Amino acid sequence: MKTVTILGATGSIGTSTLDLIEREPENFQVLALTANCDVEKLAVAAIRTNARRAVVADEACLHDLRAALVGTGIETAGGAQALCEAAAMGADVTMAAIVGCAGLEPVLAAIEQGGTIILANKEPLVSAGDVILAAAAKHGATLLPADSEHNAIFQCFDSARPHRVRRIILTASGGPFRDKTLEEMRHMTLEQAVAHPNWSMGAKISVDSATLMNKGLELIEAARLFPVANHQLEVIVHRQSVIHSMVEYVDGSVLAQLGPPDMRTPIAYCLAWPDRMAAPMPPLDLVAIGRLDFEAPDPVRFPALRLAREALEAGGARPAILNAANEVAVAAFLERRIGFLEIAAIVEDTLNCYDPAAPDSVEEVLVVDAEARRLAGVRVKDCVA
Ligand code: NDP
Q1: Confidence (pLDDT) at 131
Q2: Which residues line the pocket of ligand 1, CB cutoff 6 A?
């Protein structure tokens, strides 16, 4: 029996995680579930799983959460500190599935307990990779990647012989605009941007997939998680999303992990690791799929990938600025305040006007993050004006 805490339990990844653990109640016991403010979904999940604690990040929602859980015996709490306390309850397994850098401090609180952390929430790893990896090493925490690409690499990577790896090849679906011209992309709406052709995901990562910033963040994520040089990391567009990523060895062998485009496969892998558990997937029907296509990403239509590569190469504060500016720009796009192509432009402008020293503590990362958000916010206002 493993105890499980889900940070971001009401989101796309959180819901998939709940689906899996509720299929095996004899193997998983829920400790804490958290959300930002979706009280109804959180309360229903907490009751269904008999969670010990339910927490909302937005304190204004705590009153409603208490009302929804009155008489159940489930503890309730609200606010940023309460989120960290929930993460620090000592679960055997913590699913980190908050969206954005808002997940940084809760993830660190979970890592300090030394258990297993399943990382879906990629933004903290992008912004504060060194801090997170140092904390995991110090506290003996195990980080398992849930992102489908990194999970695929994790399954194919011979960690005993990293020097025998020639390349890591990250696959990208290309997103909903992979066949659009730049001019067409200029006019794409929110609804079109979140309509991903292969995956069902939260709004922010869906927009990141449309700009290819998601693949850029994943490039940086891969550099943090696997002991290879930056030039060994490549991205190719593979529109069917059947091969989730590949590892090439010096002898020319290429190992790939294949599977349906459903996050329950990599999440199940992490939940059961080092064992395996059943996930409700039909067998992969390669005959029906018929063909697997590959192409190079287009750097002109998708500048976000170039910006992420540059941030990775430069290191220091650059990845944190890239991520913070992107979060602000995507939020503005989701509020219909800016156009689709302005997302990458705002990220680039923010990177161009802010170049602080490399942060080396979580506090310093948060200072960089806050200033980059402020600058990107000013740039958003320019677009709106
Ligand atoms: P969703 O938007 O679907 O869910 C986000 C979750 O985080 C919700 O539970 C939400 O609560 C909570 N949340 C939002 N803002 C805050 C905040 N400020 N403080 C605390 N909690 C907050 O996102 P996804 O599930 O799609 O993605 C989660 C993470 O996983 C992201 O980092 C994403 O990049 C990564 N990921 C997602 C994949 C996917 O298929 N969805 C695939 C690979 C990685 P509420 O519901 O109350 O708003």
Answers
A1: 97
A2: 8-14, 35-38, 57, 97-99, 102, 120-123, 147, 199, 201-205, 263
Q: 12-22 and 39-49 helices cross at what angle (nearest 10)?
A: 20
If you take atom 32 of ligand 1, which residue's CA is the nearest one?
121
- Please tell me the CATH code under which domain 2-145 is placed: 3.40.50.720
Q: How far is the CA of 13 from the centre of ligand 1 (A)?
A: 7
CA distance 267 to 194: 22
3-state secondary structure of 257: strand
Query: Which of 15, 99, 241, 373 to probe ligand 1 with, by most ligand atoms within 8 A of CB?
Result: 99
What is the tens place of the pLDDT at every residue in 323-358? 999 999 999 999 999 999 999 999 999 999 999 999
Note if the pTM is more than 0.90.
yes
CATH of domain 151-259+288-384: 1.10.1740.10
Q: Which helix (H) or strand (E) holds 139?
A: helix 129-139
pLDDT band at 197 (very low <50, low <70, confident <90, very high): confident
